[in-house]
Amino acid sequence: MVVTAYLTFHQNIDACTNLNCMSTDVNPRVAVMAEDAALRNFRDFLLIYNRMTEMCFRQCVNNLNYRELTPDESQCVDHCAGKTINVNHRMMSVYMEVQPEMMKRSIEAQQQLNAQQSVQSPS
């Protein structure tokens, strides 16, 4: 399950990178911003992946006497990773719903602040 999420993430990054590379009329500044965003997304993914790995390892692996996971440990790790991925997907879907409204409020607040400043400052 973790591998599937990892591969899906990389396929999305590769597709985005390929689109940027294929476009000949892309502003270099926009391309740099897209690369920075992709790098931030990748860094966030690795941070979440590392946290999930550490949490599931601590919760599920109790005996380090064997090279392979025991069936119980393997099942626990699969369950833990699946649960963590599902929680992350739910949080992202809620964020994607709420974020545009938050941005709208932020823009409105900034516009009100700019309007107040323009009224207060004599021209």
Protein model, in words:
This protein has helices at 2-22, 28-60, 71-120. By secondary structure, the chain is mostly helical. It has a single domain (2-120), classed as Mitochondrial import inner membrane translocase subunit tim13 like domains (Helix Hairpins, Orthogonal Bundle), CATH 1.10.287.810.
Characteristics of this structure?
3 helices, elongated, metal ion binding, Mitochondrial import inner membrane translocase subunit, translocation
Structural class: mainly alpha
Main sheet attributes: strand count, strand direction, barrel closure: none
Which fold does the CATH topology refer to? Helix Hairpins
Helix share bin:
over 70%
Question: Which architecture per CATH?
Answer: Orthogonal Bundle
Number of strands: 0
Note the beta-strand portion.
under 5%
